[in-house]
Design brief:
By secondary structure, the chain is mostly helical. About 45% of the residues lie in helices and about 0% in strands. The two termini are about 55 Å apart.
């Protein structure tokens, strides 16, 4: 937690008790307890809100599948150019969907000296 090990935390706790003093210690303990309870309530509320809006439980999500460190762009490009389209990009990753070939595009060439048509909606 914040790069503090157990012995450093204990020293900070003892210094805090000395600085706060025994008369105000119960008050600050209650404040800390209420803060922790409020943070837990907010976290569970956020979890419930995500579950309601998205419709999935966060615990059921396979987070390894969404880890960007597992993707090597060079390998992905090589697989996309050399292999067929139905092979998965990486283990546990999404499977590429085979795409249908687009129909051949018809190119109409203008005759020499003919002006290009004007499109008023073009930007």
């Amino acid at each position: 937690m914040f790069g503090i090990n157990g012995s450093e935390f204990l020293v900070l706790l003892i210094i805090g008790v000395i600085v706060i003093g025994p008369s105000r210690l119960p008050e600050y303990t209650r404040k800390l307890t209420n803060l922790v309870k409020e943070l837990r309530r907010m976290a569970s509320g956020a979890r419930e809100q995500i579950k309601e809006e998205v419709g999935i439980d966060i615990d059921d999500v396979d987070w390894k599948k969404y880890d960007p460190r597992q993707y090597d762009p060079r390998r992905i490009i090589k697989e996309a150019l050399l292999d067929d389209d139905t092979k998965p990009v990486s283990e546990g990753g999404p499977v590429a969907v085979a795409t249908a070939k687009a129909p051949a595009r018809v190119v109409e060439r203008l005759s020499a000296g003919e002006k290009a048509p004007f499109d008023s909606e073009a930007t």
